[in-house]
Design a protein that fits this description.
Number of helices: 16
Helix content: 25-40%
CATH class of one domain: Alpha Beta
Shape: globular
Low-confidence stretches: 1-7, 16-27, 389-406
CATH topology of one domain: Vanillyl-alcohol Oxidase, Chain A, domain 3
Mean pLDDT: 90
Largest sheet: 10 strands, mixed
Distance between the termini: 62 Å
CATH superfamily of one domain: FAD-linked oxidase, cap domain/gating helix
Length: about 575
């Protein structure tokens, strides 16, 4: 094995091995992995992982044990289903091991670890895949009548326990309602530049269909490959844009959902001041009020002009000062992500000696070189230096989430992008290698940011040492920025003890979350609440609002069957 690798090289090679070749293709007939991210044929062989392990161990500064293998599906044992589908729904229900295991967990680190080790403690009794709204309506009626918990499930990419069928014993059973058969772009209004899209469409599916008209939704969360429009809305997902249009609700015209009490659909309008917004209530409802079935969303021509640059700063806080200036400048860059030195090195975008700002502009018509020039001048005023010399902005390529084209500092930006897209695949491999790899995110206003960042990082580093010994790292980046604040996104990497990974992460997560709330931040900026964040969410929200939400749930879900335990406890 050669000596110390260049920063990020081992992880980057692994990501390239696992990333799919065609990200915007149609529906695939390949089966998803029952325990982790991607398809069954994307898991590298044990020999490949053993070859990668020393490279990654050297890069991360960790002592790793033997590479382990996941428990095979044939060896997975699930509790017997407690319920049986009625004849009217039997054709859209499944109770096989693969279907139930795939819908038993989300994609958090703990979910992946539990699936890797064959632990599926709360599988759904049935998986229901409605192909049209009438079938979904019958399913919800059955669940309400029989007191069966109903868990809406899109791409299953929740990292906060939002799709885990862990419910109270008061229910006679639990079903996972898989919306992915509802995957079509139903209508495109090219005059108003909007489209009606079914909620089960994944990122690649809806982009491929919109692309036939030269249009795009331009919402690219890291989970883009498998997450769905309905899931984005239900969790207020954050997407490609780091400024201006950061969350999916910024693209909403109207939303339609089926609730146990009937249809919830808003009038399609560009804007409205008519009371509390029905769309905003559904955005972030996390499946507790009903199942989102379709939405009208604002679309746009595909970008034809892009320019990107990597800008180095002496320190993360120095870079943050520049990011604040950029966010308040009115330039509205599409990409404005700041990586601390460790994060830059980990992704192969830097050498660990400087923080890196990944900066990008894009447009469907007008050149963006002027905006980039002004932005780089602002960076220079704050001590920033372009990472590498390169050319001007130019024509855009059409890859999902691609913010390149012509670039300055293109190698750094390209390395960051590759690591960003490959991160979910890489984490599965890290689990096999015995690496604890997880993230958490928040948001805070600018005047509190320096103290907030220091406090949360210190609390997390102390917790990592307590849970994992000296072998651990805490990294940070800014993913989304606003004129009044930013969204810090932390990454934790440490040596895991086989069989104790869930407890190790639980202790770290507890300390980090307590520090976030104590310092005035939000428990989540875009990962959602789910079951994992529920206790901190209860403390963050106003009590009168909790009572109002409880009343809303009682009105549309009288039996309390919709995703119980998330956001609010049912009254019934």
């Amino acid at each position: 094995m050669p000596g110390s690798p260049a920063p990020g090289r081992g992880r980057d090679r692994l990501a390239r091995t696992l990333l799919p070749k065609h990200r915007l293709g149609g529906v695939s007939s390949r089966r998803r992995k029952h325990w982790g991210w991607g398809f069954e044929d994307q898991q590298p062989a044990p020999a490949q992982l053993r070859a990668f392990a020393p490279v990654l161990a050297a890069q991360l500064g960790l002592s790793l044990g033997e590479v382990q293998e996941p428990v095979a599906l044939a060896s997975v044992r699930l509790a017997q289903p407690r319920i049986k589908a009625p004849p009217s729904l039997a054709g859209i229900c499944a109770d096989d091991v693969h279907a139930r295991a795939c819908h038993a967990l989300g994609k958090s680190y703990c979910d992946v670890v539990n699936g890797f080790r064959g632990r599926f403690e709360h599988p759904p009794d049935l998986v229901v895949r409605p192909r049209e709204e009438s079938e979904l309506e019958r399913a919800l009626e059955w669940c309400s009548d029989e007191r069966i918990a109903a868990i809406p499930f899109g791409g299953g990419t929740s990292v906060v326990g939002g799709v885990t069928p862990s419910v109270a014993d008061r229910y006679n059973g639990v079903v996972s309602i898989d919306t992915t058969a509802l995957d079509r772009v139903l209508e495109v209004d090219e005059v108003s530049r909007s489209a009606c899209i079914q909620a089960g469409a994944t990122g690649p599916q809806l982009e491929a269909q919109l692309g036939e008209r030269g249009l795009t939704l331009r919402h690219f969360p890291q989970s883009f490959e498998f997450s769905t429009l309905g899931g984005w809305i239900a969790t207020r997902a954050g997407g490609h844009f780091a400024t201006l249009w950061t969350h999916i609700e910024d693209f909403l015209e109207s939303v339609r959902a089926l609730t146990p009490a009937g249809v919830w659909e808003s009038r399609r309008l560009p804007a409205s001041g008519a009371g509390v917004s029905p769309d905003r209530v559904l955005a972030g409802s996390e499946g507790t009020l009903g199942v989102i079935t379709q939405a009208w969303v604002r679309v746009q021509p595909r970008p034809s002009q892009r320019s990107s640059a990597g800008v180095r700063f002496e320190s993360f806080l120095a870079g943050a000062q520049c990011v604040r200036a950029l966010s308040q400048s009115g330039l509205h860059p599409a990409n404005c992500r700041l990586l601390d030195p460790g994060e830059a090195a980990l992704t192969g975008a830097g050498d660990g000696s400087a923080a890196l700002l990944v900066l990008g502009f894009e447009s469907s018509e007008q050149p963006v070189s002027e905006e980039m020039t002004r932005a780089l001048a602002l960076c220079a005023e704050h001590g920033g230096a372009v990472a590498e010399a390169a050319g001007d902005g130019g024509s855009a390529r059409r890859g999902a989430g691609h913010s390149g084209g012509g670039s300055r500092g293109g190698d750094a930006v390209g390395s960051w992008r590759q690591a960003f897209l490959g991160a979910p695949y890489t984490r599965d491999a890290l689990v096999a290698m015995g690496v604890l790899a997880e993230t958490f995110e928040t948001a805070i206003t600018w005047e509190r940011f320096p103290a907030f960042h220091a406090r949360v990082r210190e609390a997390t580093e102390d917790a990592v040492r307590e849970a994992c010994g000296q072998q651990g790292r805490v990294l940070c980046r800014l993913t989304h920025v606003y004129p009044d604040g930013a969204a810090p996104y932390f990454t934790v990497l440490a040596a895991a003890r086989p069989g104790e990974e869930v407890e190790q992460w639980g202790a770290i997560k507890q300390a980090a979350s307590e520090a976030i709330l104590a310092a005035g931040g939000t428990i989540t900026h875009h990962h959602a609440v789910g079951r994992d964040h529920r206790s901190w969410y209860d403390r963050q929200r106003p009590d009168p609002f909790a009572a109002a939400l409880r009343g809303a749930k009682l009105a549309v879900d009288p039996a309390g069957v919709m995703n119980p335990g998330v956001l609010i406890d049912p009254v019934a």
